[in-house]
Amino acid sequence: MNNSLLNKLAAAALAVTLATSCGASTADSGDNNAKAQAVTAALPQCSGDSAMVLVVKQCDMGPRVPGTEAHARCATWLKDRLASLADTVIEQQAPVTTFDGTRLTARNIIAAFNPEAAQRILLLSHYDCRPWADHDPDAARRRDPVMGANDGASGTAVLLELARVMRDKKPSIGIDILLVDVEDWGDSDSDAPDSWALGTQYWAEHPHVAGYKPMMAILLDMVGAKGATFMREQFSDYYAGDIVNLVWRKARAAGAGNLFVNSVGGAVNDDHVPLLQAGIPAIDIIDLRPGSDHGFFPHWHTTADTPDKLDPATLQAVGNTLLAVIYNQ
Ligand SMILES: [Zn+2]
Question: How far, rounded to the nearest angstrom, does the alpha carbon of residue 100 sit from its chain's CA centroid?
Fold first, then answer.
């Protein structure tokens, strides 16, 4: 993903919207929190340690850069694992051409729970790794690939862990997990927002089910770092503020309110943008650090994005927040 790609139209509208969304979010009372906590006490829980094992499993294959053997192996492993947990799994192969002219076949993997249910939530994460660590502090390493423990593997691991929970306790609504490919081969040197999220762009134009319209889509990106702060990403807040309100409320009920900061952070060009453009209400749960040079966690797009920078407690907090959404509709 890339930062600071807020287009002028959205920027103008944002100034108006921020007051509205902040007003709505602060209206949540302590009473509501107490009730929500009572309800969520019986909710299924996920394991941060299990999610961490799934991060390491992906990283042990090597950087999952599209076109490499590590990537191909990982995609097949993800598909096989989801096939053992979900009701249905399909792989969507998408011909894409990156900004530098590389032709790839993106592999989007889609798993469904309760495929017949009309009410559905879409959960997604990218699993590919960026081919170049172009923000590495060491200039000599900026052509090396990113391991993507946080940027790729973390969201994917949380969704795999949720799939395990949902296998054991079927949700009453339909849940789709979309693991998207070729998110991170974008052009960071120019203002070319369409160079990112190629797998999701393809899926948005060719959804796996004709006329597919989930109630909401929730994207996970960089959801495992120590010291993570999930601020209200600006596109999410502007275009789907009610869903941000819901998820942040569930986070507080799930005991993760310390990570889900109720203030607006930066605008990020990420996999939720093609979904919003397709008319699907979509939000991005993403670690935003306003104090850093680029607005993300310190090891973003560096060779140091490795499993040791992650905290199982962060993965678990995000997973349990989503479980509160899934089981408490
Ligand atoms: Zn990235």
Answer: 25
Return the CATH number at 177.
3.40.630.10
State the distance from the centre of ligand 1 to the C-alpha of 301, rounded, in angstroms: 6
In this prediction the pTM is 0.89
> How many whole angstroms from 320 Cα to the centroid of ligand 1?
24
Cα 2 to ligand 1 centroid, rounded to whole Å: 7
Containing structural domain, residue 207: 2-327
Summarize pLDDT for 239-259 with one digit per residue, the tens: 999 999 999 999 999 999 999
Mean pLDDT, rounded, of the chain: 90
Q: What is the pLDDT of residue 146?
A: 98
- Quote the ligand 1 centre to 132 CA distance (angstroms): 10
Half-sphere CA count of 140, side-chain side, radius 13 A:
0
As for how many domains the chain has, the answer is: 1
Show the DSSP H helices in 206-310 as ranges.
Answer: 234-239, 241-253, 272-277
Which residues have CB less than 5 Å away from ligand 1 (the ion)? 151, 184
CA of 115 to the centre of ligand 1 (A): 31
